[in-house]
Amino acid sequence: LWVLDVDVLRGFDTRSGAPLATVDLAPAGALFLNDFDFAPDGGIYASDMRLRTGPDGKTAPAGPGRIYHVGPDRRVSVALESPALVFPDGIGWDARGRRVIIAPFQGHAIQAWKPGTTRPDSVAGGKGRFDGVEVEPGTHSDHELERLDRLDARRRPAGAPAGAALHDAGGREHGCTARPRGHRFDGGREVRAMEL
């Protein structure tokens, strides 16, 4: 089990809970890690919103957003740093598109970044304040993402706890957030962007 902390990635044994690995991203400049997904090379991509907490407890931007790559050998590198990454929050690897899908907390567009390029592209509009993304097998094109604004949001049932999970029509869980709003996409794969 991998868990992302503010500037550290930690691995645990799922049976005993014993720590198995610690990958410190602080030496690479990590400030406010938020989400991760597995890369096709067996490594991990992690998003960094690049927020620094001041002595007064308030957070402030400390540079452009980043995506780190942690290799299978646990070596850390900055895979992408771009002013176009405005508080990158949720990320997910899109195996079919061979790209990273990014749900930024600021801005109003879901983004896609192909490793090796220098900036993400906007692929779908939305209301913004995205708080996660999950990419599932089977998407056919960005057309499915472009429909973000026209889709119905799922709402947390009355009386459900604040951390209620989102489920698809088949009953599979797809993450949770404080006030879940998931967006369903047509075509065999879903990308869910949760908004606060």
Which descriptors would you attach to this protein?
196 residues; mainly beta; four-stranded antiparallel β-sheet; 17 strands
Protein architecture, described:
The protein is mainly β and 196 residues long. Helices cover 0% and strands 43% of the residues. The chain has strands at residues 2-4, 8-12, 19-24, 33-38, 44-48, 51-53, 59-61, 65-70, 76-82, 88-94, 99-104, 109-113, 121-125, 130-135, 165-167, 173-176, 191-195. The radius of gyration is 17 Å and the shape is globular. Residues 140-196 have low confidence and may be disordered.
How would you briefly describe this protein structure?
The chain has 196 residues and is an all-beta fold. The chain has strands at residues 2-4, 8-12, 19-24, 33-38, 44-48, 51-53, 59-61, 65-70, 76-82, 88-94, 99-104, 109-113, 121-125, 130-135, 165-167, 173-176, 191-195.
Gross morphology: globular
Helix count equals 0
**Nearest-angstrom radius of gyration?**
17 Å
Oligomeric state of this protein: single chain
Low-confidence stretches: 140-196
Main-sheet strand order equals: 4-5-8-9
Q: Pairing-aware structural class of the strands and helices? A: mainly beta
Strand tally is 17
Tell me roughly what share of residues is in helical segments: under 10%
Please report the distance between the alpha carbons of the first and last residues. 26 Å
Strand fraction equals 35-45%
Largest sheet: 4 strands, antiparallel
Q: What number is the mean pLDDT?
A: 76
- N-to-C SSE string, H for helix and E for strand: EEEEEEEEEEEEEEEEE
Layout of strands and helices, then pairs:
Blueprint: E1 2-4, E2 8-12, E3 19-24, E4 33-38, E5 44-48, E6 51-53, E7 59-61, E8 65-70, E9 76-82, E10 88-94, E11 99-104, E12 109-113, E13 121-125, E14 130-135, E15 165-167, E16 173-176, E17 191-195
Antiparallel strand pairs: 1-2, 2-3, 4-5, 5-8, 6-7, 8-9, 10-11, 11-12, 12-13, 14-17, 15-16
